[in-house]
Amino acid sequence: MKFNPAENIQDLQYFGEFGGVNPSISDSSTYTFLSAKTMFDTFEGNADGCYLYSRHSSPSNLYLGEALAALEGTETANVAASGMGAITQVLLQLCKGGDHIVSSRTIYGGTYAFLKNFTPKLNIETTFVDITKLDIVEAAITKNTKVLYCESVSNPLLEVADIKALADLAKKYNLQLVVDNTFSPLLISPAKLGAHVVIHSLTKFINGSSDTLGGVVCGTQEFINNLRNVNDGASMLLGSTMDSLRAASILKNLRTLHIRMTQHSKNAQFLAEKFEADGLKTVYPGLVSHPSHEIFKSMMNTDYGFGGLLTIDVGSLEKANELMELMQLKKIGYLAVSLGFYKTLFSAPGSSTSSEIPKEEQIAMGLSEGLIRFSIGLDNDIERTYNSMKNCMIEVGVLKK
Ligand SMILES: *Cc1c(COP(=O)(O)O)cnc(C)c1O
């Protein structure tokens, strides 16, 4: 049966206590009890529907979590204060000293730094691999490997992970497949393809208004319960808790995600085709020339396109900077990191979001200096945007007249 994430979100209804069309916001960090016995049971996790303290859970955070579980088709979900707050709690819950992780080498810079520099302090080692080469992924698995980690569409190179094939590998070696789906909410549903845990930075497309950080872990009830365990749960004990006011505002933005993703994709597809025809080195999963175009197609939920991210390579960092500054001046978008905003955002990942990755490794993975990553906005008239972009490119000499 076809999986319909947008419909699943739409069908969830929560009402406010006075019949409001939005649920009431739980504006409390602590909760009163009529009996001491119920307080004890709640602390032990045995009193369903009771709240104790908002680091454990709060009504607003649970509403948002349930809506995100509906998005990913998982049993439940746990929201966090940021994407990194979600990623770190998952990896620290699944791994202990002596364990090993096999990770894609093209991942978010913060995740890369966490695995490269932080987890080794806890004696958790990571082997970084080209996730599109399944034989290399398999060869990196050792008897200590616990987790296979990747992004469905990678940052910033837009490599596409073959999630079904990776899920088969995970099954064969009894690993947990953890997928960061931040670049492709709605487009790809990793849990439906066999991923055990799906993570998002809500900061990006899902919230979509660049006004807050947020994260989520989507998974089984058992795993989420483990994260929230008062004795050894990484969510509970590391304390990366989202505030209820933010959970309520992100839930409202989630309601329009399908409309936004469709428009981001439509605009990005238009620009990618134009740029490619102009002879620019363009990477976009919706282009037939993309090495993983067919894999993306085989995994995607058909209604939302190939996403809002594309890259072009203009040859050098100087050219990239010159072009980005001019595009900002012409109001095409903003020279800024992050993604999923209504306005186009652009940055040169080699010197910004992926600068945690050493230069030699950047070169090895194909992250060149002149690469510009675009998060294409919700522009109403994308042809007009294209014409202004082209003028900028001609002016800085990236394109000929
Ligand atoms: C931004 C991002 C993160 C980190 O999320 P924060 O909300 O900034 O902590 C993780 N993964 C990907 C793919 C991202 O783009």
TrEMBL record:
- The answer on whether this UniProt entry bears the keyword Lyase reads yes
Q: Which residues carry this modification: N6-(pyridoxal phosphate)lysine?
A: 204
SUPFAM superfamilies, per the entry:
PLP-dependent transferases
Keywords from the UniProt entry? Lyase, Pyridoxal phosphate
Cofactor(s) essential for the protein? pyridoxal 5'-phosphate
Q: Which GO terms describe its cellular component?
A: cytoplasm
MF terms from GO for this chain are:
carbon-sulfur lyase activity; pyridoxal phosphate binding
Q: What processes in GO biological process is this protein linked to?
A: transsulfuration
Q: Please give the InterPro entries that the UniProt record associates with this protein.
A: Cys/Met-Metab_PyrdxlP-dep_enz, PyrdxlP-dep_Trfase, PyrdxlP-dep_Trfase_major, PyrdxlP-dep_Trfase_small
Instruction: Family membership, please give it.
Output: Belongs to the trans-sulfuration enzymes family.
Under what name is this protein listed? Cystathionine beta-lyase
Task: Report the source organism.
Answer: Polaribacter gangjinensis
